[in-house]
Design goal:
Length: 239
């Protein structure tokens, strides 16, 4: 019998906004450790951190227990994947080399006889014009090099300041699910996939589209949840 697979997204670890679940990083760590030896795959579908920028000789000390949990999962035989989100798109080689966690922008896996496509989902909504422009600025090589020249403490403080303000802006933004579902349906048709797992908008759900099933685990801030895949089907589990 095949082991179940688990998918989650948008933990935004490193901040505790108003209404956040207490000790949510510890709850996530405990959940990851509970899957040791019993999960075939664990896929974190972007924005695991509120901010991540990988320096050559610096790794945030705030998440050491999380790093241990991810490494323990890998050592137990679970295939662990981490997708880039819009808050943590600057991964280097720390996760693959130190922890055995594979990092991707998007990903296709064969799980339980299904072909599953994963992507965080930032920038796929056509109405999200502001973010598309901002991402081009952040991804510009010169800007990334300039940011790297900052002391890590200063860089983290600046990133958290920007994140707080962008979060306030995002709270009032309308989520147009039809755009996300239309994108997911097109991806499944183009990539010949049965399932599309995404995140970014923080809404949880499982939706049937013309070419397959689109699903999102929601977020791990105020309403922690994850997707469980077993016997080729998906279930949404709330904590």
């Amino acid at each position: 019998m095949e082991k179940p697979a688990y998918f989650l997204s948008d933990a935004h670890l490193g901040i505790d906004p108003p209404g956040a679940v207490p000790d949510r990083e510890k709850k996530l760590i405990d959940l990851l450790l509970s899957w040791r030896g019993s999960a075939s795959h664990v896929v974190i579908v972007g924005d695991l951190f509120e901010f991540w920028y990988e320096y050559d000789y610096y790794v945030s000390r705030d998440h050491q227990a999380l790093f241990f949990a991810l490494s323990a999962l890998v050592q137990s035989g679970t295939e662990v994947h981490l997708l880039q989100g819009n808050h943590d798109f600057s991964y280097g080689d720390f996760f693959p080399k130190a922890l055995g966690v594979q990092v991707h922008k998007d990903l296709i896996l064969e799980i339980q006889g299904k072909r599953v496509y994963f992507r965080h989902g930032d920038g796929v909504a056509k109405s999200d014009h502001g973010y598309r422009i901002l991402r081009r600025i952040l991804d510009f090589p010169l800007n990334r090099w300039l940011f790297k020249q900052l002391h890590p403490d200063w860089g983290m403080a600046l990133a958290k300041f920007v994140g707080r303000n962008s979060r306030k802006y995002g709270e009032d933004r309308e989520i147009k699910m039809d755009e996300y579902l239309g994108w997911a349906d097109g991806v499944m048709a183009r990539e010949h996939c049965d399932i599309c797992i995404h995140g970014h908008h923080h809404l949880s759900g499982i939706w049937q589209t013309e070419h397959g099933v689109a699903a999102s685990a929601g977020e791990w801030i105020k309403r922690p949840a994850f997707l469980r895949m077993e016997k080729g089907g998906l279930n949404l589990v709330s904590i």
